[in-house]
Design a protein that fits this description.
Chain A: One of its GO terms (cellular component) is plasma membrane. The complex is a heterotetramer of chains A (437), B (552), C (337) and D (308). Chain A is of the alpha/beta class and 437 residues long. Chain A has helices at 62-68, 140-146, 158-161, 168-179, 181-187, 197-206, 212-220, 222-245, 251-256, 264-276, 294-311, 322-328, 346-351, 356-364, 433-436; strands at 18-31, 34-47, 51-55, 78-87, 90-92, 109-111, 133-134, 151-154, 282-286, 314-319, 331-336, 339-345, 413-416, 419-421. Chain A has a domain at 168-254. Chain A has 15 helices and 14 strands. Chain B has three domains: 1-31, no CATH class; 32-247 and 524-550, D-Maltodextrin-Binding Protein, domain 2; 290-519, Dipeptide-binding Protein, Domain 3 (Dipeptide-binding Protein, domain 3, Roll), CATH 3.10.105.10. In chain B, helix 10 packs antiparallel against helix 12 (367-377), helix 15 packs antiparallel against helix 17 (477-489) and helix 17 (477-489) packs antiparallel against helix 18 (493-509). In chain B, strands 13-17-12-16-14-15 form a six-stranded mixed sheet. In chain B, a hairpin with a 3-residue loop joins strand 7 and strand 8 (221-226). Classes of the chains: A alpha/beta (437), B alpha+beta (552), C mainly alpha (337), D mainly alpha (308).
């Protein structure tokens, strides 16, 4: 695939295993004025270990697409109007127990086997033997297991995404308690199937399913208090470890702090620590540096990059900042008005943009060579997405618009290996299938 | 209403309660029942020297103390009590000159604290009231009349009056002032000091009465229990007064059986008639005429700003008469009082000695006559505005509203402002002399003898006569004063009755009050109470619990 | 440390405010007239009135009278209640207990029900339960408490006869001792189930009446702040962690929504104090409110003064407690700024 | 620096456009307010009440000489609804309940208009002085406000009304004495907030007089919460005023809803429900209407709270 990719961007060569694929995703919002087609048929794949950039103007649907992975869409007024988000969770490689071997490309992880056929291949998994979940249709309980554990999210503004009334420790701890309570119990010396009401009470406490009486029991019984303290201690160790991984100095103190007592950069580090706590397969980073000072941005970006490489997680990096995307991503998908208009390797796309929108976007990025006072802009404004008709969404603003653009809807089609564009300039044959559909 | 259904729930609770009570044994021994009375007003004090006439304490004092004489249930006639005989001229206990009264006293009577009763106690009790002269109390009833008191021997007591006074014996019946307290108990607890309330006696009555105080939880209740060592006919049951309850709550409590007797007024009787287990008692009249006073003594510049009347407005007898003609008596008696009451002439109430039923009275609204008199007085065309001050929310206020409606309907230029004020404000307004309102409404204090009324409410030199300047209004003030004095001093009943009848006629022609009605003596009680009787001469609510027997 | 300083500062200001309140009310009462009326009967002579004025120092100049009143207050003497025919200080404890019992019960009803209802509606925004809650809330805020109480009386007492008026059934009340004056507590101390049931039975209608308005206020605020909190990023962040909705709601959204709601609960305390007057009149509850109403109608100034003073003490303390809870709930709050 | 001499005199054109913008905005605002059905419901009730108050002399025969006194029919006490001449029944003193309801709307209207206008003016003035002048004066005014805020409003008003004596005028007076505090506080806070805006600084730099700045730049921008609060208080004041008269602080016999509810309560044990029920319903509807309109106004003026 991306043969020209520089070493700094990926530590290891990847076989193009697709960890997630989005097909025909449509998310609409019901408003008083009508139905807003915020995301209207988005297709793309996320490959294992890669960083996929999702770029576009505000309101193009990139955040909604990102949130669809975690089903964090407000429903209503949001409507999941169609499509699928297939996700292949990874599991510790059974051959090397995570140490890294040939079969798992030294990553220590392999796609989880299909639970129905145990990896043998069946109709459910399309004979691949690999578990594949449609994140839009799985049960809420299954979704919760995936959230924070297999797929995590880094939010745009850490000052809003951290609960102001809970300490950092409490908020980070929730992730471990939710997904790693078995480890915590084990660390405290309680086996998963240990009988007895005391063990049950502690298990409930460790998995945040405690009843009102459980806390009382812990207060009353000395033995339980000791065990509980052991759980808390194991938890604290994990929280501290997660924090120091994001290069937070003095994690013990930070754990006791409330979000408003930390700087913006520190808060985003906390968010990152929280997202990475359970070694997720996929991280949705929704403009994680927009709310930060420029000086802090770079350090945070480096940190994300570094942690991602060391863990081999995949990242969907949502941003409107092309220079950042170019710096950090392996591949880029350009979105416009609820559609992906161009997708490809970062070098290909930046050196040879094919879609007029991408071209305009790139031209708008000021470089050191841009003369003073000559900032380019794309004329016109983003169209309203209420009940759009069959036409290229960009047609109104496109200098190269011609015949079919106004009456037909272009589809994403390859122009070169790993580089797809949806534009009639590239595919003059009227493939108006979507318009008729 | 669906009252029966409300009662259905009670057995459930009561059964549980009884079960529990038996378990604790709280109810086990006491064979005596307790009559529970829903009272109107809590006593401020139980000291006979300090209790106000008509205040809640008077009823308690009535039951725990005795007086020298008493009034029976059936009539206004005097009966012996701590004195063994009622002094009369015939039995020689009133001296020939009518000034000296001798009271032979009962022997072997003991106070609740065990000390014996003697003539010294009588002397001490009356002296004490006169000496303390508490402003709240009514010491002048004794001090105005008595020239000298003497202890003749242990069981003979003598009083000499300033002048002949036909109503004096009734003074010895009044629970406030005339009750006999234990000298030893008082001397041991603060003694007597002029103008200083006695703390001990205000909460710890030591008397000889048929009851003794058992407990007083301020703001909640007061219990008296039967005095087993009583010299006279013993009482049947203990009594508990429950305080702090609105009239309608008392009525409900009676319906629900929480109370055996209640203090109520005619407007609630409709809610009680026909209720199972409740008997409505509606015989006789209270001796507290509901009146509206005319002020004939208004100083310059004190009237409320809206009033347009001249200061001598009520000096004109035609105007006073016109008001009396204009009032809608029917609305008051049959509407507000629900028929429990009677139109009353003037200050010789129905039921006191000497009342002459033949004398003319204002008893029907006569608007034509009222108009004629107003025109004659020259106020018809110009009109007037006058304020009448009254306690807001009271029956008296309703009387004022009826007056307002009556007068204002007569002529749109006539305006009556009903100035409803708080009770304390009203009391303060009336304590001013002269009063800063042209009119006010309240009721009279009960008395057993017509002279008490006539002197207080009609005599130009009497209490209100002075304050209101009756002398400015009577056609012949001296004659009225002389007539009332004569009634007070006339000891021959027949002659006295004639004089009283004459006074009624004089006061009809020259009225100083507008008397809306004489309120009916009504009450209601549970049918478990036997022997119910009401005597308006007993302190409010005119009940003597010693006569009532509760039978379950 | 900072919180403690704040509390101390507030407690120091409290008596100053009370002094201000007492001066205002005292001067107002005395401008309108002497309180001598409660000691008088309507047929006293001027000399007798003067005698009584001297006994109570009412013949002195106004500032001296205020000094005597203040001195009395410090000695626990609040004057003579003409309404209760007893010293204010003697009557106060029992009435206070009665009112507190009612107010606390109502507050519990209002807070518990209000929070629950607000949460229920807020989570189901724009669905049926939410619409109903909104209608109930706006209606309840407009409902004259005294009228609502009367409607309850008409239905549940006069017609159905399910609930009584007053505070207790007399015989049951008499059957136990009253060391605290709180009927519920006393009945538990006495171990009397009958008395406890009697206490609760009498509390039902008045506490519903009194609590209802509070429910509305609290539910309304809880609903709107919960809706606001549910739109915050940190709620999505909590969901993104994989937390079950129960915890997202309880630990994150609801807890934070409580912050603004707590200030409204503070307002509800004032609402309860005010409402207690009408509720006590309607249900014949022998508490401070009814006493105050009687005092107002009969011009009993000593009672009015005491009531106003105690109400403002309670009110200020309650507000202080609310501030403290507020600071505890939200670490960002810096008190006293 | 006077306006005329100032070289930086503000051109008159922007003010006109500002006015036009404001007019356009108020048109939009009206549309926005009226798009809410519950607000319209509130308006309808208010209109009905107002017309009832306006046409009271034609709807009933006014009681002579004082129409604000209940006409008492002493021959028809405690009559149930449906009695001839008394469609909604009579009170304990023979007052016609329907008459009380109709004329009570006038009493309530007087009460709320007088109290709200007086307290808004006083409160705005005091709050403005505190907010504009600041310093010692602000400090003193706010300490006075603190004292007033140490007692719940109704209880303070109750105490004052009790002292003044029972009359409807005194209820109005006592509410005026208590309610201004609220507006003073809102106004002061708003002014301090608005003062921080750049356009106020700009106006100051331009050399506008303080009074000018206050009336042109600060007051209009600070008034919104006061307007909303005043609308809500139109209802709340009738509620509190009725509570005071219920407790017994109005003169008796006056056609006032709270008085009627109070008079009626004595009869409910005996099944006379009507004398309390109907007037209470009127108080409820009155307060409800103003609450609905006030809420609608707040939603329209402060979009942040919409739908709550």
């Amino acid at each position: 695939m991306s043969m020209e990719m520089s070493d700094t961007k990926s530590a290891r060569p990847v076989t193009p295993v697709t960890i997630a694929s989005v097909r025909g995703l449509k998310v609409h919002f019901q408003s008083k004025a009508g139905r807003v087609h915020a995301v209207d048929g988005v297709d793309f794949d996320v490959r294992d270990g890669e960083t996929l950039g999702l770029v576009g103007e505000t309101g193009c649907g990139k955040s909604v697409t990102g949130r669809a992975f975690l089903r964090l869409l407000p429903v209503p007024p949001g409507i999941l109007a169609g499509g699928s988000v297939m996700f292949r969770p990874q599991t510790t490689c059974p051959d090397c127990q995570g140490d890294g071997c040939e079969r798992c490309d030294d990553s220590g992880r392999r796609p989880a086997p299909c639970p129905k056929c145990r990896g043998q291949g069946c109709t459910t998994c399309d004979q691949t033997g690999i578990e594949s979940l449609d994140l839009l249709t799985i049960s809420d309980a299954r979704m919760r297991d995936i959230r924070g554990d297999r797929i995590a999210m880094i939010f745009q503004d850490p000052s809003k995404a951290l609960n102001p009334t809970l300490t950092i420790g409490e908020q980070l701890g929730e992730v471990f308690l939710q997904h790693r309570h078995a480890d915590l119990l084990a660390a405290a010396g309680i086996a998963e199937d240990q009988p007895g009401w005391q063990a049950s009470a502690l298990r409930r406490l460790a998995s945040q399913q405690d009843r009102g009486t459980d806390r009382l029991l812990v207060k009353l019984s000395g033995a339980m208090r000791r065990k509980h303290r052991a759980i808390r201690q194991a938890l604290d160790e994990r929280i501290a470890a997660a924090l120091s991984e994001t290069q937070i100095p003095n994690p013990q103190r930070v754990m006791q702090s409330f979000p408003h007592e930390l700087s913006g950069g520190m808060r985003q580090r906390v968010m990152i620590a929280q997202a990475l706590a359970c070694d997720p397969d996929l991280i949705i980073a929704d403009e994680p540096t927009t709310a930060l000072d420029v000086t802090v941005q770079a350090r945070i970006l480096d940190l994300v990059r570094q942690l991602q490489t060391s863990r081999g997680s995949s990242v969907i990096y949502i941003s409107h900042d092309l220079s950042v995307v170019r710096h950090i991503c392996d591949r880029v998908a350009v979105m416009y008005a609820g559609r992906v208009v161009e997708i490809g390797d970062v070098e290909q796309l930046f050196t040879n943009p094919r879609h007029p929108y991408t071209q305009g976007l790139l031209a708008a990025v000021p470089t050191t060579r841009t003369p003073r006072g000559q900032l380019a802009a794309i004329p016109g404004s983003v169209p309203e997405l209420i009940d759009p008709g069959p036409s290229c969404r960009f047609a109104d603003r496109c200098a190269k618009a011609h015949g079919p653009c106004a009456s037909h809807d272009p589809a994403l089609q390859p122009v070169s290996a790993g580089h797809d564009v949806a534009c009639f300039l590239e595919h003059p044959i009227t493939t108006a299938s979507r318009a008729r559909a | 209403m669906n009252f029966e259904r409300r009662l259905e729930l009670r057995p459930l609770v009561v059964t549980t309660a009884i079960g529990l009570l038996f378990a604790t044994g709280a109810f086990a021994q006491d064979m005596r029942d307790t009559i529970v009375h829903g009272a109107d007003e809590e006593p401020a004090t139980l000291d006979p020297s300090q209790v106000e006439p008509g205040a809640g304490g008077e009823a308690v004092i009535f039951h725990v103390y005795d007086r020298l004489l008493t009034v029976g249930a059936d009539s206004a006639d005097l009966l012996p009590s701590l004195a063994t005989e009622v002094p009369t001229r015939d039995n020689g206990l009133i001296s020939e000159d009518g000034l000296t009264y001798t009271f032979p006293l009962r022997e072997g009577v003991v106070f609740h604290d065990g000390t014996p009763f003697t003539a010294d106690d009588v002397m001490y009790s009356w002296d004490r009231v006169i000496e303390m002269a508490m402003p709240e109390g009514a010491s002048d009833i004794l001090s105005d009349k008595i020239a000298e008191m003497r202890v003749v021997d242990d069981f003979t007591f003598e009083v000499t009056l300033n002048q002949i006074d036909a109503s004096f014996l009734y003074s010895s019946v009044l629970p406030m002032t005339a009750s006999i307290v234990s000298q030893d108990a008082v001397e041991a607890n603060g003694g007597v000091a002029e103008g200083e309330p006695n703390e001990f006696l205000s909460g710890n009555p030591v008397g000889t009465g048929p009851y003794q105080l058992a407990g007083w939880n301020r703001t909640e209740n007061l219990t008296i229990e039967v005095n087993d060592g009583y010299w006279g006919t013993p009482a049947f049951d203990n009594v508990r007064w429950e305080f702090g309850l609105d009239p309608d709550v008392r009525v409900l409590g009676l319906r629900a059986g929480e109370f055996d007797t209640v203090e109520t007024d005619p407007s609630y009787i409709a809610d009680l008639e026909g209720v199972e287990g409740v008997i409505v008692y509606g015989e006789g009249l209270l001796l507290e005429p509901l009146h509206i006073g005319f002020n004939l003594n208004i100083p310059e510049g004190v009237l409320p700003s809206g009033d347009t009347i001249p200061l001598d407005f009520f000096h004109d007898v035609r105007i006073r008469k016109a008001f009396n003609y204009a009032f809608d008596y029917n609305a008051f008696v049959n509407g507000a009082l629900a028929g429990f009451g009677q139109v009353n002439p003037h200050y010789v109430p129905i039921g006191v000695f000497g009342y002459d039923p033949e004398a003319p009275i204002y008893d029907t609204q006569d608007l034509a006559e009222a108009e004629r008199l107003f025109r004659e007085a020259g106020v018809w065309d110009e009109g007037f505005t006058v304020s009448v001050v009254v306690e807001s929310g009271s029956l008296f206020e309703i009387q004022c509203l009826i007056l307002k409606d009556s007068i204002e309907r007569l002529n749109p230029n006539f305006r009556i402002n009903v100035a409803g004020v708080a009770e304390a404000v009203f009391d303060e307004a009336l304590a001013q002399s002269p009063v800063e309102y042209a009119m006010w409404a309240k009721n009279g204090d009960p008395a057993a003898d017509p002279s008490a009324y006539l002197e207080t409410y009609a005599h130009p030199d009497g209490e209100w006569g002075e304050v209101h300047g009756f002398a400015n209004g009577y056609a012949d003030p001296e004659a009225v004063g002389a007539l009332i004095d004569a009634i007070a001093q006339e000891l021959d009943p027949a002659t006295r009755a004639d004089l009283i009848g004459e006074a009624q006629r004089v006061l009809y022609d020259d009225p100083m009050w507008l008397i809306g009605a004489q309120e009916g003596a009504v009450t209601a009680y549970r049918d478990t109470i036997k022997g119910m009787v009401i005597q308006p001469l007993w302190p409010r609510p005119s009940m003597n619990f010693a006569l009532y027997d509760k039978q379950n | 440390m900072q919180l403690r300083d704040y509390i101390i500062r507030r407690l120091i200001v409290l008596p100053i405010l009370l002094l201000g309140v007492s001066i205002i009310v005292f001067s107002l009462t005395r401008i309108a007239g002497s309180p001598v009326g409660v000691y008088l009967s309507h047929e006293m002579s001027a000399a007798e009135v003067l005698q009584i004025e001297q006994r109570f120092n009412l013949d002195k100049p106004l500032p001296v009278q205020y000094f005597y009143w203040l001195k009395g207050v410090f000695q626990g003497d609040f004057g003579w209640s003409g309404v209760a025919s007893a010293p204010v200080a003697d009557v106060f404890p029992a009435k206070f207990a009665a009112t507190m019992e009612l107010s606390i019960t109502s507050a519990i009803v209002a807070v518990a029900l209000g929070l629950w209802l607000g949460t229920y509606a807020g989570v189901r925004r724009n669905k049926m339960p939410d619409h109903i809650t909104r209608i109930v809330a706006v209606s309840a805020a407009s409902l004259p408490l005294f009228w609502f109480g009367i409607l309850l009386l008409i239905v549940f007492w006069a017609n159905l006869g399910w609930f009584p008026v007053g505070r207790s059934t007399n015989d049951i009340w008499e059957s136990i001792a009253h060391p605290t004056g709180f009927y519920i507590i006393d009945s538990i101390l006495a171990g009397s189930l009958t008395a406890l049931l009697d206490a609760l039975w009498h509390l039902v209608l008045p506490s519903i009446t009194l609590g209802f308005g509070g429910v509305a206020i609290i539910a309304r605020m809880m609903r709107s702040s919960l809706i606001e909190e549910l739109q915050q990023d940190y709620v999505d962040a909590a969901r993104a962690k994989g937390l079950p909705e129960r915890l997202v709601l309880k630990r994150h959204a609801k807890r934070n929504a409580l912050v603004p709601t707590v200030t409204v609960i503070g307002l509800t305390i004032a609402f309860l104090m005010q409402g207690a007057i009408a509720a006590e009149i309607i249900f014949r509850w022998p508490g401070l409110g009814r006493w105050m109403a009687d005092a107002v109608v009969r011009g009993d100034q000593a009672t009015i003064m005491t009531y106003v003073l105690f109400t403002s003490v309670l009110f200020l303390l309650a507000n202080l407690v609310v501030d403290i809870i507020y600071a505890k709930l939200d670490p960002r709050v810096r008190l006293g700024d | 620096m006077t306006d005329a001499s100032s070289p930086l005199r503000r051109p008159s054109l922007p003010r006109e456009t500002a006015l036009r913008v404001r007019m356009r905005r108020s048109g939009e605002l009206a549309v926005k307010i009226l798009s809410n059905p519950t607000t319209i419901f509130g308006f309808v009730i208010i209109l009905l009440m107002l017309s009832m108050a306006l046409f009271a002399p034609w709807l009933t025969t006014p009681n002579a000489p004082d129409p604000y006194q209940m006409p008492r029919d002493w021959g028809a006490l405690r009559m149930p609804p449906g009695t001839p001449n008394h469609p909604l029944g009579t009170t304990n003193t023979g007052g016609d309940v329907l008459y009380g309801i109709i004329w009570g709307s006038r009493t309530s209207l007087q009460l709320s208009i007088i109290v709200v206008s007086v307290t808004v003016v006083i409160g705005t003035a005091i709050g403005s002085i505190a907010g504009m002048v600041g310093g010692k004066i602000d400090e003193i005014l706010m300490r006075i406000v603190d004292v007033f805020l140490s007692i719940p409003e109704l209880i303070f008003a109750l105490a004052i009304a009790a002292i003044l004596g029972p009359s409807f005028t005194n209820i109005i007076l006592s509410l005026c004495l208590v309610f201004w505090v609220k507006y003073a506080r809102i106004m002061r806070a708003q002014i301090i907030l608005v003062k921080q805006n750049d356009y106020v600084d700009a106006a100051r730099i331009m050399g506008d007089s303080r009074l000018n700045i206050y009336f042109r730049d600060i007051l209009p921008n600070a008034a919104t919460p006061v307007i909303v609060q005043a609308t809500l208080d139109m209802g709340a004041i009738v509620l509190i005023g009725a509570t005071l008269s219920f407790i017994g602080l109005a003169e008796s016999g006056i056609a006032e809803w709270g008085v009627l509810v109070s008079e009626g309560q004595a009869g409910i044990a005996s099944g006379r429900w009507w004398a309390s029920t109907f007037p209470g319903l009127m108080i409820f509807l009155w307060a409800l209407a103003f609450n609905l309109v006030g809420d609608g106004l707040r939603d329209a003026l402060d979009p942040r709270t919409e739908g709550r």
